[in-house]
Amino acid sequence: MDQQSLVSLILILLTFALYIGISVYNRAKVTSDFYVASRGIPPFWNGMAIGGDWMSAASFIGMAGTVMILGYDGLAYIMGWTGGYLLLTFLLAPQLRKYGRFTVPEFIGDRFDSNPARLIAAIATIIISFTYIIGQLSGSGVVIGRLLNLPASTGVMIGVVVIAIYASLGGMKGVTWTQVAQYMILITAYIVPIVFLSLQISGNPLPWLTYGNVVNELGALDRELGISEYFAPFEEGNRAQFLALLFTLMVGTAALPHVIVRFYTVTTMKAARWSGAWALLFIALLYLSAPAYAAFSRFVIMTQVVGSPIDDLPAWTEPWLNTGLLEIADSDGDGVLAWEDLVIHQDIVVMATPEIANLGMFVVGLIAAGAMAAALSTAGGLLITISSSFAHDIYYRLMKPEATDSNRLLAGRIAIVLSTIAAGLVALDPPGVITQIIAWAFALAGGTFFPVLFLGVWWKRMNRQGAIAGMLGGLSVTLGYIFLSMGGVTFFGIQDTGAGVFGVTANLLLVIIVSLMTPPPEQRLQDEAVDLRYPEQMTYKDGEVWMNDEQAK
Amino acid sequence: MQKVEKKVADQYFKIRTTLVVVFLIIGFSVSFGVAFFAEAINESGAMIMGMPAHYYMGAQGAVVTFVILLFLNAIISDQVDKKFGIDEKQNVKISGGGADH
C-alpha cells in the first residue's frame, strides 16, 4: 500500500469510528427513537441531516462531471434536485408532520383508512429505496476501491458492515446525528479543492463568483474549435425532454419516502418549514459548487491538456488513463492531442481535481472520506425507510397490531440488518441495469406517490379507491413509458428519464376521476384532512375550528 | 378550548395558501420559465455575472431564488401565526413527543 492509500485509509477509518461512536451515544431505546428520533431534532440540525440524507455518492462524485459533459442540459439536475424542496416544504412536509405518523405508507394507510393502500405504498417504498441503496453501496465500493487500490467488492463489504452496526444500534436517532457529521465532512471535502482551483485560475478564493468568466471563455474556445458552445441550450436533447426531466426530478425529489420521513423528526409544522429552508441552504452549497467544478475542470483540460504532444501529457493524466476514466485516441494522427480525441468519464471531475491542482495527499484522502460520507449518509436514511416499511407498516400495522414496543424495536433492528445484507449481496455484483433503474427512481417515486400525497393533504374528498387507482395507475404508466421509450417509441422526444411527466399526470387524473365516481370518504377522514390546514394549536372538529389556549407548561 | 370564528379560520388558511401559490409561481418562473425561453435568451446575448443569462439562471439564479423563497416562507408564516395568536410553545406541547403511530 502506497503512502497515498495509507493517508486515505486513516482518514476513512477515523470517520467510521466517529459514526459508530455517535450511534453508541444516541442508542435508540423505544420505537419512537428508532423511527422518528422522538420527534425532537431542532430544525437547523434536521436541515443539515436532510442535506446528508439527500446528497448521495452520485451527487458527490458524478454531478460536476455530468454538468461538464452535458453543458447547459446538465443543469436540469441542478434545478430539479433543489426545486423538489419547494414542492416538499410548501405542499407536503408540514401537513404530513401534523398528521403525525411514523412512515409514508402509514400516512396513506390511515388517511384513507385502507390496508390495501398501505400495503401498496409499503411495497413501492421498499422497491424504490432498495434500488437506490444498491446504487449507493456499489458506487461507494468502486470509489473506495479505486482511491485505496482495493477491489471494489472489498469496498462494498467495508461499507455494509459499518452501516449495519450504526443504523441498527442508533435507529433514526443515531442516523440523524451521523448524517449531520457526514454532511460536514462531505461539504468540506467538496469545497476545499475548488477554492484552491479558483485561486489558481482567477486569483479569487470564491469559486461561485469567478467561474462566470470561465464559462464565457469556454464558449469562445468551443467557437474556435467549431463545436457547439458549452452553454448552448438543448444540445443533448430537445426542450421538451429538458422540461420533462426537470419536472420528473422535482416531483420525484418531493416524493422520495426517505426524504419525507426526515420531516417527521421535528416537533411542529413550523419546525418542518424551517427544516426545509435550512436543508435547501445546505444542499445548495454543494449544488452551486458543482457547475463551478465543471467549468474549471473543462477549462484546465482545454487549455493545459489539449494541444500537448500525445507522448508528453501532464503527469496527473497517467493514472486516469490507466483506469479508463480518461481515454485518448489520436484520430488525425498528428501526434498532438485535440479536444475531439478525448473521452472523459463523468466521475473523473471531482476525483482528479486535487491532482490537477496539486493539492496533496491530505486533500485526496479528504475526497475519499467525503465520498464515503455521502454514500453512507444516504444509505443510512434508506435503511431506516426500508426497515420501517417491513417492521412497522407490514409487521406491526398489518400482521401483529398487538406487538409490544420492545418486540417492534427488535423487528426494526432485524429488518435493518437483513436489508443491509441483502443490498450488500446484490451490490457486490450489481446487474448492469442498476444504473438505469436508479435514473428511473425519480420517475417511479413521483409517478407513484406525489399526486396521492399532494391531494391526500389538500383535497378532503379524495378517497381510498382514488388513492389505490392513482398509485397503481401512475406506477404502470411510468413503467410503461420507460419500456416504450427504451424500445424507441417516444412522445415529443421525451426519453425514459422524463417519464415522470406521464406517470404523474395519469396518477393525478385517476385520483380525481375515481374519487368522484365512488362514494365520498367518512366524515371523520374528511375532518382529518381539513385539520391539516391549521397549526397544531387549532383543531378542526364537526365543522368548527377550536383554539387550544390552555396555559403552556 | 375556545372556538375560532369561521371567518378567522378561513382567513388563516387563505393567507397561507396564497403565500404558497405566489412562492410556487416565482419558483417555477425562474426554473421552467427561463428554461422554456433558453434559446431566445442565449441568442439575445444577455449576461449575468459574466456568463450567458440562461446558463446563470440554471447554475445559480434558480437555486438561490429557491433558498430565498423557503426562508421567506418560514419567516412570513411565523408572522402570520403570531398575528393569529398561535403560540409555538403550545404547538410543541400539543404535537408532543411521539404519538404511538
TrEMBL record, chain B:
Keywords: Membrane, Transmembrane, Transmembrane helix
Keyword Transmembrane listed: yes
Record-annotated Sodium symporter small subunit domain positions: 10-87
UniProt entry tagged with the keyword Ribosomal protein: no
Source species, domain of life: Bacteria
Pfam families: DUF4212
Transmembrane segments: 20-41, 53-76
UniProt-recorded name of the protein: DUF4212 domain-containing protein
Source organism per UniProt: Alkalicoccus saliphilus
